[in-house]
Amino acid sequence: MWYDGGEEMSYVNRRYSVVPYDDKWPRMYAAEAGMVRAALEDEIIEMEHIGSTAVPGLASKPALDILIIVKNLKKIDSYNFSLKSIGYDALGEWAVPNSRFFNKDRIDKDGGEERLVNLHVFPEEHLKTLEMVDVRDYLIAHRHEAKKYEDLKKNLFTRHPNNYLSYREGKEEYLAELAKRASRWKDATQGPRHFPHI
Length: 198
What we know:
CATH topology: Beta Polymerase, domain 2
Structural class: alpha/beta
Order of helices and strands: EHEEHHEEEHHH
Helix content: 40-55%
CATH class: Alpha Beta
């Protein structure tokens, strides 16, 4: 999977939507990144806006995905309270080994959860970080691929408007192949890459 984190049990009350690209998303990322940087102090090496909201013109769920590369992953657990103070829940090593995942949700009047931000935290030289950035850059550079992905998301939302798990599962095969294409493209256009400067 490209950037999504989580397990089935987290989707029971999840509200979601797929909306047109919003040019406020980069500014929202910048504001959120500033708060996260302040909370994590000097632990951050790199921070990147990833996921569909980082691809201009691409329809998306209106939830930011933020990739964070840190000096010491285990030390990040000691910042759980600091991140909680700005709205994040700590889910630990949630879906990807050797990582940490935090989310910020909003609860609606009916008790449903709407995701606002996902924080994907990794140590230096974790291969998942390259995948996340490669796919973002590939979609930006290949508008036909971004349109294909957008059409898939819209179709899945139409079919499963109240079942986020089915929506996610419907994307898995496509995203796995997309990640492979993105990696081959990045290797061909940039050659070998080095950590942590993606």
